[in-house]
Every structure is written in C-alpha cells, then in structure tokens.
Amino acid sequence: MISGKIVSDSTNTPVAARLFTHSGYQTATNAAGNFNIQVKGVGDTIKVFAIGYKTLIFPVKLPVQKYIVIRLETASVNLKEVTIKAERNHQKDSIDHRAEYSKVFNYQPAKLKDAFVAPPSNVPFTFVSIDLLRVISALTRNSDPKYKLQKVLLRDEQGDYIATRFNRGLVSRVTGLKGDSLQTYMDKYYPTLDWVKKASDYDILLYIKSKATEFRKAN
Q: Which of 91, 132, 172, 192 is the most buried (most CB within 10 A)?
C-alpha cells in the first residue's frame, strides 16, 4: 500500500485526481489531495489523471515507497482561432416585436375631439353633446399605462434602429476612441432618428469623422 499526495507543480496546491495501477487497482484523492493505493510491487506503475493537468505515469521502484508526493504539470490548451460575427435583421426584429405587442402598438388613446358627439340629423333643435368620460380619458392619457408602454416600445424600437447604423463598435473603429472618451463622444453626438433614416452609410461615416475632429479639439 502506497500513500501520498498530489499537488500542482506551479502552485503547490492539492489536486483532485484519479489514480490507476497497471495491476488493476484504482482510487481517488480526497479534498486535501491525499490518497492510498494498493500496488503489486516493484515494476508496477501508477497512472494519474486530473482535469487541466498532463497525465503522469509514476513507476514503483525498489525499495517500495511508503509515502510519495506527485507533482502534476498544468496542461496547456490550444484553441483554434474563432471569428464571431453577429448579424441582426432589424426589419425582422421590428416586425416580430410589433406582432408580439400588437395590442400595445395598435392602441389609440382617446382624443379630445372624440368627446364631441354630433346630434342625429333627423332630430331638430338639438345641440352637440359631450362625452365626459372621453374628455377625462383624453386629458389624462399621459398617465394611461397602455399609452406609457406604447411610448416606451416605440422609443426602444427607434433606438434599436439607430444602433444598427451608429453604434460604439463602428465609432470606435472609425475614431479610435475607447473607454470613457468613447462614451462621452456617443452621448454628445448621438444622432436623431429622422437624420439616420435619411443618411446614407457614407453620410454617417463623414459625420463620425467630422465630429471626432470637433471632439478632439474640444478636449
């Protein structure tokens, strides 16, 4: 029976590992990296497996060791280079979003003019009547939860569209700005939706470059 401990060669900390002998015995380390394993004798070998470390084969020598410390070398992992390209279809996203929240997008808040009801044409000497509930709804529509949600969804949809054409990645590539400087630039020169809709890709690039020159002069 051989006792011992398995540690990392670089940090000297305990390593969780499994041990197998050529003669067919096996065991695992405890939380402290200690183990006990039976061997056949001199000439037997102990193979050690641990995640993140190189597999080690330890020969049992003469005289048979009673306590050993096995140091494992960290295994380097070589990963192939991967290029990740995210593509979003803003038009499809917008259609899907509007379908999901169709009731909110199609919601029409009460208008003040709808409160005035014209009299029937066949009834003489009658006057225009006023629907008080519609008047109240029209005057308080800004506090209507559906109206508020509709405004939020429209604002988010517009922001998503602008971000497809004017975003941190594009601005950073064109201007070389990063970190706080990039964020300050984005906050200061964020374009309006109407302008972005009319602008070509070339117009947006010119805008980014000209504003970068202005930004650097000011800072």
A: 172
